[in-house]
Amino acid sequence: MKHLFSSGEAMFKKNSRELPEGTLVGKFLEYEEVRPDTRYYCTGVLNDREVKVSFEISEKEFNGIKMRKDLGILMQSDIFLAEWISYKIHD
After folding, report:
1. Digits of tens for pLDDT over the chain (91 positions)?
2. Are 74 and 65 in contact (CB under 8 A)?
3. For residues 34 and 69, is the Cβ–Cβ distance under 8 A?
4. Nearest Cα to 29, choosing from 20, 19, 39, 37?
5. Side-chain half-sphere of 40: how many Cα atoms within 13 Å?
6. Whole-angstrom Cα distance, residue 70 to residue 84?
7. What is the pTM for the complete model shown?
8. What would the 3-class secondary structure string for 65-84 be?
9. How many CA within 13 A on the CB side of residue 69?
10. Rounded Cα gap, residues 80 and 1, in angstroms
11. Do 23 and 16 meet the contact criterion of CB atoms below 8 Å apart?
12. Within a 13 Å sphere around the CA of 82, how many CA atoms are in the beta-carbon half?
């Protein structure tokens, strides 16, 4: 399922993340469930080209994200800006 970043997240650049390859500006995230082993997908722009980046978040970040999800206050930037344990850029 696609989950768009809010206009406030975009306005405050919370949909932007520095990677060694450049700045990734996300348009939306794709995921089905918020679980420790979930692989998230961000579609966005990296170095002026459209990409899809898959990533997993760290276990220590998961508990806070899960709590916000359970309370109904989870923002896409909470996931996007969390600590990633791995990622892969797909063209």
Report:
1. 999 999 999 999 999 999 999 999 999 999 999 999 999 999 999 999 999 999 999 999 999 999 999 999 999 999 999 999 999 999 8
2. yes
3. yes
4. 39
5. 28
6. 21
7. 0.94
8. HHHHHHHCCCCHHHHHCCCE
9. 15
10. 15
11. yes
12. 25
CA 32 to chain centroid: 13
Residue 21 in contact with residue 89, Cβ under 8 Å?
yes
Distance CA 19, CA 59 (A): 20
Find out whether 47 and 62 touch, Cβ atoms under 8 Å.
no
Distance separating alpha carbons of residues 15 and 60, to the nearest angstrom = 21
One-letter amino acid at 7 equals: S
**Phi/psi of residue 10, nearest 5 degrees:** -70, -40
Cα dist. 46→16, 17, 38 in Å? 10, 10, 23
Q: 34 to each of 46, 68, 76, 81, how far by Cα in Å? A: 25, 10, 11, 15
